[in-house]
Amino acid sequence: xxxxxxxxxxxxxDRAFVPYIMAGDGGLxxxxxxxxxxxxIGVTAIEIGIPFTDPVADGxxxxxxxxxxxxxxxxxxxxxxxxxSFAEEVTIPLVAMTYLNPILACGxxxxxxxxxxxxxxxxxxxxxPLEERAIIYQALQQEQIALIQLISLTSPAExxxxxxxxxxxxxxxxxxNGITGARSDFADELEKHFAKLKAASPIPVLAxxxxxxxxxxxxxxxxxxxxxxxxxxxxxxxxxxxxxVEALVVASKQ
Length: 254
Description:
Pathway: Amino-acid biosynthesis; L-tryptophan biosynthesis; L-tryptophan from chorismate: step 5/5
Organism: Metasolibacillus meyeri
InterPro entries: Aldolase_TIM, RibuloseP-bd_barrel, Trp_synthase_alpha_AS, Trp_synthase_suA
Number of strands: 8
Number of domains: 1
CATH class: Alpha Beta
Distance between the termini: 24 Å
CATH topology: TIM Barrel
Family: Belongs to the TrpA family.
EC number: 4.2.1.20
Number of helices: 12
Largest sheet: 8 strands, parallel, barrel
CATH superfamily: Aldolase class I
């Protein structure tokens, strides 16, 4: 469903826009309203972060949001249960971004089953290397949930080939070296890097990490299939600043 949703957007001449939100930041009772409003303003899919005590890929903004969510008692189990309670109202794909430990604590089969009930169509596990994918892959396959791979700027050509072949739904192309967070500038070679990724990939290639302005969205939309915006969205939602959120979404449609 994720790949189809992105391809439909591309067929319309736009680029995919995927906001990242932190489950439980502001309380899980806000999750439904946030997701339905994002759906209404035209996002392609939504990436939902599950708070974790050791979030190795997260920059300061998302790490703080995760800490707030943990203080609210948010867990993988409670997030999936909350999502399941209104899954019938969600018409766009949801992607869960979670670390490996919570999945192992839940059990791969139970996690995949509960994720399916919650309307999850894809999973990103940033601390699970490709070589360990067997831990979860079969369980996700049974529930038709895509296992999305991250590809870094420093990945050599052979590694890119392997990751592109293994990824499902879309490729999450990391645009900076390091953790998430808003950036003011990016490497000069990004366009060439994305050309390599798109040549190697049979599925859409989305850009993520550091994208924080409408100008960034437009820039990356010119050489990728879409963007994932995290820290800026998390910050805007924490301040109930929907104007900023909508401006970012609109930039993907121009």
